[in-house]
Specification:
The protein has 141 residues and is mainly alpha-helical. It is 94% helix and 0% strand. It is built from one helix and no strands. The termini are far apart.
Length: 141
């Protein structure tokens, strides 16, 4: 049975002293370590969240730069294409004018040759006419 005497008071005092000593020696340091660990984890989570936000901003900037660069590239491509078309037109116009000049020169040369041949034939025409008339008539003129 349970006897209530002075040993019970000693046991209660012993329990309270043990509780006090364990609180000082074990529980407070363990709670301090757990609190520091919790703070470190919280700070690491904050740092990780900052890095995620920075990465997201960097990704958005990168996507904007890519789209802007694509737009610039397409614009430059169009400009180069337009410039190429203009150069092609200029080259074709130059070729056409060169061909027209050569054609004009050739026609002038042909015209000169034709007039020279006409003059030569006009000069020989009288002789040919006389020869033809003599052959047709069968006698000399």
């Amino acid at each position: 049975m349970l006897n209530i005497d002075y040993t019970l008071l000693i046991q209660i005092a012993n329990f309270l002293i043990l509780l006090f000593l364990l609180n000082i020696i074990a529980y407070r340091p363990i709670r301090g370590i757990l609190n520091r660990r919790k703070e470190e984890i919280s700070s690491f989570e904050d740092i990780a969240q900052d890095w995620r936000q920075k990465a997201e901003r960097f990704k958005e900037e990168l996507e904007e730069n890519i789209s802007e660069t694509r737009k610039d590239g397409l614009k430059e491509k169009g400009d180069l294409k337009d410039e190429g078309v203009e150069r092609e037109r200029a080259m074709l116009q130059k070729a056409y004018s060169s061909v027209e000049d050569k054609l004009r020169q050739s026609r002038a040369e042909i015209g000169d040759s034709v007039s020279q041949v006409r003059h030569a034939l006009q000069a020989d025409l009288e002789g040919f006419s006389r020869d033809l008339a003599e052959k047709i008539l069968g006698r000399g003129l």
